[in-house]
C-alpha cells in the first residue's frame, strides 16, 4: 500500500510539473510577442527622430512588427510544411532552419530600395496629402495583418501579397473613390488564384510521375536510384541556383538571362557528379537495411526548403515592412511618394526579426495543415513539391504570369495528392461513369447494385486528398482580397475620424 501511495504521489508531482510547464508556455508566447512589438515601436521612434509625424511613425512601426509576425506565422509554413509532413524534418528543426534562413534572406538580400505597395495599383494622377497617404498605408497593412492573423488561427495558408493588395485597394477607394484603383491590375492578381495552383500542381504531379516511373516502380529500385537520383539532385541544384539569382538575390544582384542559364547549367553538372558517390553508398546502405529509397531525398529536400526560406525572406520582407518604408519616406520629405523608396536597415531589422519570431511562435498550426492535413507526405512527394515551387515561379516569371508562392506550394501538394489518388483508384469501377466500349462493359461496369455500393465505399476510403481542407483553403484564398479591402476601408475611416477628433 505504501508503494502504491508513493506512486500516486509521484504521479501527482509529474502532473503538477506538466501543468506548470504548460502554464509557463502560455505566458511566454504573449510575453515575447509584446516584447517584440514594443521593441519595434521604440526602434521606429528612436531611428526616425523628432518630427511632427513621429507618433505616426511609431504606430506604423508597431503595425509593421505585427504584420511581420503574421507573415512568418502563415507564409513561411508553405515552405516547411511538406518537409515536416514527410518526417524529413522535425517541427523544431524546421522552425530553426526557417527562422535563420528567413532572417538571413531579409537582412542580407532584402535590398536597399523597395517599390511602395500602392505603385501599380493606384492611378498616378491620384495625389494624396501626406497624412492621407500615411493613413492609407497604415490601414492597408494593419488590415492585411489582421486577416492573416485570423487565417493563421484557422490554420488556412493564404497569400500575404493578396492580403496587402486587398488592403491597399480598400483604403485607396475609401480615400479617393473607386476611380483611384487600376482595376485591370487587380484582375491579373485575381487570375493568379487559378494560374498559381494549376501550374504548381501540374508540375509537382509531373515530377512525381517521372520519379515513380523511373525509380519507384522499377524492379531493381536501388540500381534505378543510383542512375536517376544524382540527376534529380543536379536538377534541383541548377533550378535553385537560377531561382536564387532571379528571386533571392534580385535586390542586390541583377544577372542577365544568359548568365543565369549558364550558372544553372554549371551547378547542374557539379551537383550531378558530386552527388553520385554519396547516392551510391547511401542506396547500398538502405538496401541492406531494408529501408525505403525515399530516404535518399531527405538531404536535397532539407537543402531546398532552406533555400526557399532564404528567397522568401529576401522577397517577402517587403510585404511586411514596405508600407512602413513608404510612411517613413513620406514623413521625412513631406510628400506622398509612390515610386521606389529607400529601405532603412532598421526597417529591414523589424521585418527580418518579426518574420523569424512569428514563425517560431505561431507557425506550427499552418505548418501542420500544409504538411499533414491535405494529403499524406513522404520524402519523394515533399521533394517534388519543393522543386515544383521553384520551377513554377521561374516559368511564370518567363511567361509574365502573376503567381502567388502560397498558392503554388499548396497547389503542388494538391497535385501530388490527386495523382496518388488517381493511381490508387484506377482499378476500381466508378458507378457514376458509363463505359465507352464493349470491352469496358464486360470488364469495368458494376454488375449488381451491391457491387456498385461496395466499389463506391472503396473509392471513398481511398480519397487521399481531404476535401474538407481543400474547400476551406480555396475559400480562404477567394475571400482574402475582398475581406482585406473591406477591413482596410473601415480602418481608414476610423483613422480619419480619430484625426478629426484630435484636431
From TrEMBL:
<keyword id="KW-0813">Transport</keyword>
<feature type="transmembrane region" description="Helical">
    <location>
        <begin position="128"/>
        <end position="151"/>
    </location>
</feature>
<keyword id="KW-1133">Transmembrane helix</keyword>
<keyword id="KW-0592">Phosphate transport</keyword>
<dbReference type="Pfam" id="PF01384">
    <property type="entry name" value="PHO4"/>
</dbReference>
<feature type="transmembrane region" description="Helical">
    <location>
        <begin position="21"/>
        <end position="43"/>
    </location>
</feature>
<feature type="transmembrane region" description="Helical">
    <location>
        <begin position="343"/>
        <end position="362"/>
    </location>
</feature>
<feature type="transmembrane region" description="Helical">
    <location>
        <begin position="470"/>
        <end position="495"/>
    </location>
</feature>
<feature type="transmembrane region" description="Helical">
    <location>
        <begin position="405"/>
        <end position="422"/>
    </location>
</feature>
<dbReference type="GO" id="GO:0005315">
    <property type="term" value="F:phosphate transmembrane transporter activity"/>
</dbReference>
<feature type="transmembrane region" description="Helical">
    <location>
        <begin position="49"/>
        <end position="69"/>
    </location>
</feature>
<keyword id="KW-0472">Membrane</keyword>
<feature type="transmembrane region" description="Helical">
    <location>
        <begin position="228"/>
        <end position="246"/>
    </location>
</feature>
<protein>
    <recommendedName>
        <fullName>Phosphate transporter</fullName>
    </recommendedName>
</protein>
<dbReference type="InterPro" id="IPR001204">
    <property type="entry name" value="Phos_transporter"/>
</dbReference>
<comment type="similarity">
    <text>Belongs to the inorganic phosphate transporter (PiT) (TC 2.A.20) family.</text>
</comment>
<feature type="transmembrane region" description="Helical">
    <location>
        <begin position="89"/>
        <end position="108"/>
    </location>
</feature>
<feature type="transmembrane region" description="Helical">
    <location>
        <begin position="163"/>
        <end position="186"/>
    </location>
</feature>
<feature type="transmembrane region" description="Helical">
    <location>
        <begin position="198"/>
        <end position="216"/>
    </location>
</feature>
<dbReference type="GO" id="GO:0016020">
    <property type="term" value="C:membrane"/>
</dbReference>
<feature type="transmembrane region" description="Helical">
    <location>
        <begin position="296"/>
        <end position="314"/>
    </location>
</feature>
<feature type="transmembrane region" description="Helical">
    <location>
        <begin position="382"/>
        <end position="399"/>
    </location>
</feature>
<feature type="transmembrane region" description="Helical">
    <location>
        <begin position="252"/>
        <end position="275"/>
    </location>
</feature>
<keyword id="KW-0812">Transmembrane</keyword>
<dbReference type="GO" id="GO:0035435">
    <property type="term" value="P:phosphate ion transmembrane transport"/>
</dbReference>
